[in-house]
Amino acid sequence: MSFPEIRLRRLRRNDALRALVRETTLEPGDLIYPLFICPGNGVRNPVGSMPGVFNLSVDEAVKEAEEAAALGIGGLLLFGLPESKDEQGTGAWDDNGIVQQALRALRQSPAAQKLVLIGDVCLCEYTSHGHCGVVIEGRSGFEIDNDPTLELLARTAVSQARAGADIVAPSDMMDGRVAAIRRGLDTAGFSMTPILSYASKFASAFYGPFREAADSAPQFGDRRSYQMDGANLREAMREIELDLGEGADMILMKPAMPYLDVVRSARERFGVPMGAYQVSGEYSMLQAAFEKGWLDRDRATLESLLGMRRAGADFIVTYFAKEAAKLLG
Ligand code: PBG
């Protein structure tokens, strides 16, 4: 049978019919809201390239968390802007570091009962050079030394778990970091703390605005020796497979919109919980179009997120979390 007996438009005739046959859902609980924590009190500094995103002091972050919890958002992903940076990124694993302070304060708040608190585990926000690992002299100028970095990442994860993180999320792209973090957590008594690994993370121009938000731009060179080449899908599957083999409980893929095929392929191959990260540049380009009146804000926001769910993401990290939750609520 085909047209005219078959008419797919029959099931599109009204809202109720469309709702009945809808294949994909999007709910506030699927969304994870990133926060950038900075020193001070009562601080709410807007990030120029990300309208609606702020650097928040701990007290302001708690307020934001309460709002997120009331909207039914699933969780928070915490990034830190430390008081000072150094060569090694010691602020990342300082038990009194900025993310650790925020985790402790959030733990005290009733909002935290409803939110999953996730610590982003990386060094780039804490190192003076802005790279995600230990920098050494190399053949072509400098190199990021993989193995010594693992210990620092493990320390960071343990310190976040101790401060109250429900989940730790390594985003550095060093080889072997999931195993190192798992060992570190287990040894420190956190065998029940899950690892959400940014398993497939591409070297992307779409991280640009984040580096302003987190003050984490590399001071020299770029991240292409550790983040993946945007051309490689098969390699992304190997990254995921290796991280799962090392003990990752869930995986995260980023960016989202230009890499939805990665999400789809991962969904078809792996039965683990997986998320997509709609990164800063994806957010900023949509915001820019909204400001110009070129796209419908509400519809384009939800459509961008629905596409990630349809591609196979169980959850989505997005700076639109609050707006989207309001629209869905
Ligand atoms: C830290 C990290 C980055 C992002 C998440 N974790 C920046 C980077 O790798 O340069 C980017 C997130 C975004 O753009 O929203 N390594």
What would you report as the Rg, rounded to the nearest angstrom?
20 Å
The span between the termini is 41 Å
Backbone shape:
globular
CATH superfamily: Aldolase class I
Q: Hey, roughly how much beta strand do the residues contain?
A: 15-25%
Bound compounds, please? ligand PBG
CATH-assigned fold name: TIM Barrel
Strand-pairing-aware structural class: alpha/beta
Which characteristics define this entry?
single chain, binds ligand PBG, 329 residues, globular, alpha/beta, 11 helices, TIM Barrel, 38% helix
Give a description of the structure:
The protein has one domain (about 25-329): TIM Barrel. The protein has helices spanning about 15-20, 60-70, 100-110, 145-165, 175-185, 210-215, 235-245, 260-270, 280-290, 295-310, 320-329, and strands spanning about 30-35, 45, 55, 75-80, 115-120, 135-140, 140-145, 165-170, 195-200, 250-255, 275-280, 315-320. The model has no long low-confidence stretch (mean pLDDT about 95). It is globular and about 70 Å long. α4 (about 145-165) crosses α5 and α8 packs parallel to α10. The chain has 11 helices and 12 strands. The protein is of the alpha/beta class. Strands 1, 2, 3, 4, 5, 8, 9, 10, 11 and 12 form a 10-stranded mixed beta sheet that branches. The chain has a two-stranded antiparallel sheet with strand order 6-7. It is about 40% helix and about 20% strand. The longest helix is centred in the middle third of the chain and has 18 residues, at about 145-165.
